[in-house]
Design brief:
This protein is α/β, with parallel strands linked by helices. The chain has 2 domains: about 35-245, no CATH class; about 260-490, Ribonuclease H-like superfamily/Ribonuclease H (Nucleotidyltransferase, domain 5), CATH 3.30.420. Helix content is about 30%, strand content about 20%. The strands form 3 sheets. A 9-stranded mixed beta sheet has the order 1-14-15-16-13-12-9-10-11, sandwiched between helices. Strands 5-4-6-7 form a 4-stranded parallel beta sheet, with helices on both faces. Helix 3 packs antiparallel against helix 4 (about 120-140). The two termini are about 40 Å apart. Mean pLDDT is about 85; it is low at about 155-185 and about 220-225.
Length: about 500
């Protein structure tokens, strides 16, 4: 066994400025694609009740002037002030909200939904929201439509504490006011169903909860295993505005690429179960390069074998999936990558390796690295009360490695988590680069999370995107087209 440590990767912002921290980098240098010309105008649409629309507009105006950092803050780097969003802000961009792009949900419809059963309320709620989003999109074609969910679609219970905190669980990230699971007590999910339903309109949306913009409002979260802790106001503003900037098709930052290294295409492959639970499907997120731009590809059904419960692709499907990814990369960049890195959520079978390699060879890609990436159960301990540092790497042997993508962060002067962090494990199924270099890439890829400006993400974007895309795609019909950009799924 060998213990190693990887320094926090830098990110690149406007004017080639670099910093390890997302928020400090944006504040000092502006977004990656910021221009010296006229400030950008980002058109927003809003769907909600008159009250939630008014509250959202009021809060966005409040944010535009800047928000102080967390009070009594002992970690100023973890909870910095929000610098505002407007012509003179570091973003060099402002929002435009046309009244014609604001749609008020009918009170009569909401009362009817509130009177229905959980399942009926969910289905009708998605239909109502989707119809209003479509009307906004057709009327003014905004860059993003904010969906200010009313209490009738959330089951808000003011004054009641949510489910008690349970020890030993992983923290659940709740960036930008969006929930991982917005439910009505069933396996169906409002967030994912709505994203799938409006995909046909080609309109990016952003769900926003009342607790994001209205102080004192608590959202009941029936499927969370721990207590939801609301982020401070400045952090909520950072996360929401950065997500909206990205969904408007702009790029806030990118990872730094060494000019001496081969230009690399990163691919993530994971599996999700169809809504009827009859089939496993393949979900793939294809990330172009250090900018984090990707194309979403939906694969074919995968059948589990009786003697092997791990999902695997056939030779033909593996080759087709990789060929599609490389073809999309070439269309975007006008040339093929020199190297491809594949992160997969399950082990590689010999048949899969053969199919992936066939596609790589046919595309004349010079180098390839195939990794199995997932959460690990191995933990390390250090003196004191804090967990190991983010970037700590333990090599068990030449192929099996453990990496702390979450942990104590010197820049934050603390461990910014609620529970004991789990490690990320990666196994080299086929590789040409050193394990340390592969770990450096994984750590850098954890910082391409457009929903969260706290940089210590637990998973690389390759796996996060593939997993999140599967949550939405299971609600999209097999014959329906899927949007290629991640902004339609996040």
């Amino acid at each position: 066994m060998k213990l190693d440590f990887i320094d926090e990767p830098e990110l690149e912002f406007g004017n080639l400025g670099r910093h390890v921290d997302i928020r400090r980098g944006l504040q000092a240098y502006g977004p990656l694609d910021a221009t010296s010309g006229a400030p950008r105008r980002i058109r927003l649409g809003i769907v909600g009740t008159q009250q939630t629309i008014d509250d959202v507009v009021r809060w966005l105006d409040h944010c535009s002037k800047g928000i102080q950092g967390k009070k009594d803050n002992k970690q100023p780097n973890l909870f910095p002030a929000f610098p505002g969003f407007g012509d003179d802000s570091p973003f060099r961009a402002g929002f435009e909200i046309d009244p014609a792009c604001c749609r008020v949900l009918p009170a009569r419809e909401l009362r009817a939904i509130a009177a229905q059963t959980d399942y009926g309320a969910l289905i009708r709620g998605v239909e109502l929201l989707a119809s209003e989003i479509r009307a906004v999109s057709e009327e003014g074609r905004p860059a993003v439509v904010l969906v200010a969910l009313p209490p009738e679609l959330l089951g808000l219970e003011d004054g009641k504490d949510e489910e008690s905190e349970k020890p030993g669980l992983e923290p659940i990230a709740l960036p930008c006011g969006e929930r991982d699971e917005v439910t009505f007590g069933s396996d169906l999910d409002l967030h994912h169903m709505l994203k799938a339903e409006v995909m046909k309109f080609g309109q990016p949306i952003q769900l926003i909860l009342p607790s994001t913009y209205s102080p004192g409002v608590k959202a009941h979260a029936p499927k969370l295993d721990g207590k939801r802790q609301l982020q401070d106001e400045a952090t909520r503003a950072w996360n929401l505005h950065t997500a909206l900037y990205y969904k408007a098709n702009y790029r806030p930052w990118r990872i730094v690429r060494n000019a001496a290294q081969l230009k690399t295409c990163f691919v993530g492959v994971s599996f999700y179960r169809s809504l009827d639970r009859a089939n496993l499907m393949t979900s793939m997120a294809q990330v172009y390069d250090e900018r984090g731009e990707g194309v979403i590809v939906r694969g074919k059904p995968v059948q589990l074998k009786k003697d092997d419960r791990v999902p695997h692709l056939s030779h033909e499907d593996a080759a087709a999936l990789m060929s599609h990814a490389l073809r999309e990369y070439r269309l975007h960049h006008k040339h093929a990558p020199a190297r491809v890195v594949l992160h997969k959520s399950s082990s590689f079978s010999p048949v899969e390796l053969s199919g992936f390699n066939e596609a790589v060879d046919e595309s004349e890609v010079e180098a390839s690295d195939f990794l199995v990436v997932g959460r690990g159960n191995t933990r390390l301990y250090r003196d004191g009360a804090y967990p190991p540092l983010r970037g700590t790497m333990l090599s068990l042997d030449a192929r099996h490695h453990i990496l702390y993508t979450r942990g104590s962060v010197p820049y934050y002067a603390t461990y910014p988590g609620m529970y004991v962090p789990r490690t990320l494990k990666f196994q080299i199924a086929q590789g040409q680069e050193s394990p340390r270099h592969l770990a450096e890439e994984i750590l850098a890829l954890t910082k391409l999370n457009w929903n969260n400006t706290q940089f210590d993400g637990g998973e690389p974007i390759t796996m996060r995107v593939a997993f999140n895309v599967g949550k939405v795609l299971k609600y999209v019909g097999a014959a329906s087209a899927v949007q290629p950009k991640y902004s339609f799924y996040m």
